[in-house]
Amino acid sequence: MSRAVVLDVEGTTSSISYVHDQLFPYASRVLGSWVATHGGEPAVADALRSAARIADRPDVGRDEIVDILRDWIRRDAKVAPLKTIQGLIWQDALASGALVSHVYDDVPRALRAWTAQGWTVHIFSSGSVAAQRAWFRHSPHGDLLPYLTGFFDLENGGAKREPDSYRSIARSIGTDPASIVFLSDVAAELDAARVAGWRSVAVQRDDTPPVGGDHPVVTTFDQVDLRGDLTGGPLPVGHGLPAARSAAGGPR
Ligand SMILES: CSCCC(=O)C(=O)COP(=O)(O)O
Ligand SMILES: [Mg+2]
């Protein structure tokens, strides 16, 4: 029977502050000239039209749509066309070395262990599939794509706080919901996954706000032990912690 791990990116595999301090400002900085160069390409033109529709400004000009996108970046809006455009910008920047990705040290170790134990590993992030692939391909630990089987974003996966998104991803990867473990730093995402029948693990990194909720908590992927038969009982997580704790603090 197939077993799958699904990982959030920002706050889970990778540092929130890196994304906010490096990726977002970079996209904001180059957006105007990038749209001037690439705005005629079909995928980009589509995303720009779709952003204008979402902003309720269907007839807006190029400069104004760039301002709207910049405002969304500033507010960390998880809006699909913005994520499409950011992903295309970051894809080139990561490939050229203008940007370097960030992946916590425990992540490649866990990817190696879990895949060797027969788990498939997938990504579900608000960042676009193009961004995800470039992020893990150009990681400071080398190319991590060989450990990753599937990539889901707001377009092919759906909203991250909706149980239906997790139901649809489970169908798409062909794995029973009870055999899927989801790791995230956002309680509302973990809640939605749990409603869909997935196993949930809150990832509380040193540099992230409290996750909140009542999901089992780990501070590194080293504490997620996926050996053995996991059907039925609680997930063996939190080993090595003084006590496997449940998330504390306000919801995010
Ligand atoms: C390499 S993905 C870029 C990060 C990003 O844009 C984002 O929105 C991450 O959101 P997540 O769902 O991974 O928390
Ligand atoms: Mg996250």
From TrEMBL:
Keywords from the UniProt entry: Amino-acid biosynthesis, Hydrolase, Magnesium, Metal-binding, Methionine biosynthesis
Task: Name residues in a coiled coil.
Answer: none
- From which domain of life does this come? Bacteria
Q: In which pathway does it act?
A: Amino-acid biosynthesis; L-methionine biosynthesis via salvage pathway; L-methionine from S-methyl-5-thio-alpha-D-ribose 1-phosphate: step 4/6; Amino-acid biosynthesis; L-methionine biosynthesis via salvage pathway; L-methionine from S-methyl-5-thio-alpha-D-ribose 1-phosphate: step 3/6
EC number(s) recorded for this UniProt protein = 3.1.3.77
Q: Give this protein's Gene Ontology molecular function annotations.
A: 2,3-diketo-5-methylthiopentyl-1-phosphate enolase activity; 2-hydroxy-3-keto-5-methylthiopentenyl-1-phosphate phosphatase activity; acireductone synthase activity; magnesium ion binding
Required co-factor(s) are: Mg(2+)
Pfam families membership: Hydrolase
Q: Which reaction does it catalyse?
A: 5-methylsulfanyl-2,3-dioxopentyl phosphate + H2O = 1,2-dihydroxy-5-(methylsulfanyl)pent-1-en-3-one + phosphate
Q: Does the keyword Mitochondrion apply?
A: no
Q: Where is this region: Disordered?
A: 232-252
Q: Which GO terms describe its biological process?
A: L-methionine salvage from methylthioadenosine
Cofactor binding: number and manner: Binds 1 Mg(2+) ion per subunit.
Q: Please name the PANTHER family in this protein's record.
A: ENOLASE-PHOSPHATASE E1
The subunit structure is: Monomer.
Instruction: Give the family per the record.
Output: Belongs to the HAD-like hydrolase superfamily. MasA/MtnC family.
What does this gene product do?
Bifunctional enzyme that catalyzes the enolization of 2,3-diketo-5-methylthiopentyl-1-phosphate (DK-MTP-1-P) into the intermediate 2-hydroxy-3-keto-5-methylthiopentenyl-1-phosphate (HK-MTPenyl-1-P), which is then dephosphorylated to form the acireductone 1,2-dihydroxy-3-keto-5-methylthiopentene (DHK-MTPene).
Protein name from the UniProt record: Enolase-phosphatase E1
> What is the originating organism of this protein?
Micromonospora matsumotoense
